[in-house]
Amino acid sequence: MGVIDTVRDERLKRMLQQIDTEAGYTASYTGRQKFDERVMAAMAAVPREKFVPDDLKPFAYNNEPLPIGYGQTISQPYIVALMTDMLDLTPEKSVLEIGTGSGYQAAVLSLLAKKVYSIEKIPELAESASKRLQQLAYDNIETRCCNGYRGWQEKAPFDAIIVTAAATHIPSVLVEQLKPAGRMLIPVGLPYMPQELMLVTKDEQGASQSRSILDVAFVPLVVEEGENEGASQEQD
Ligand code: SAH
Hints:
Blueprint: H1 3-6, H2 10-25, H3 27-30, H4 37-45, E1 66-69, E2 72-74, H5 77-86, E3 94-98, H6 104-110, E4 115-120, H7 123-135, E5 141-145, E6 158-163, H8 172-176, E7 178-188, E8 195-202, E9 208-216, E10 222-224, E11 227-228
Parallel strand pairs: 3-4, 3-6, 4-5, 6-7
Antiparallel strand pairs: 1-2, 7-8, 8-9, 10-11
Helix pairs in contact: 2-5
S-adenosyl-L-homocysteine binds at residues 72-75, 98-99, 101-102, 104-105, 119-122, 125, 147-149, 164-165, 219, 221-222.
């Protein structure tokens, strides 16, 4: 019996079934016909309705992104499951997330890794996510409010990095913060255009490779205060 069969709540069950169906449809791109049962169990365990604004709670288990204020969104559940699955987390691993948003993705990660570090640049979102995660007793998540474009040097290196906002390129400083054999998922493309979800892998010798997984649509990753990456002159 799979995780989905054990779920009682009908709306949650439907969300998990939709994730499972979409995983099947996209298998030729992702290489994964089904997501790991531990990932599905984490998706079943985290109450998404606690991470969305009150007026959107009726839609919390729809397989779609929802606005969380400040022009930002909580990602589509299928995308959360896909990105989580592709990180190949195990209970001893550490993971860095850039773009805490509501804290939902961080909560899912926290059930699969030893330690989650998550950075959010909008103070109001950072504060409400951190409070929410504390209230829900996700104790292995450390949050920080700052620009995460340069990662979290003091806590690096990480086994996995997940960027939940779209960058125009893969920031080399983030690749540097990956451990050998580490994995990073990052949407790459122009703001408000379809982007490519990229998987960056590092081998045991520290050489990195990237490949495109599939098209996604994320809010932009901000490079420096007041500008987005498209406008930046910065070179990596
Ligand atoms: N993972 C979130 C959704 C992320 S939406 C969730 O589960 O709810 C993308 C988030 O990235 C937004 O909250 C946005 O403010 C944040 N963000 C964008 N650029 C950033 C940066 N440079 N550093 C930190 N956070 C950033």
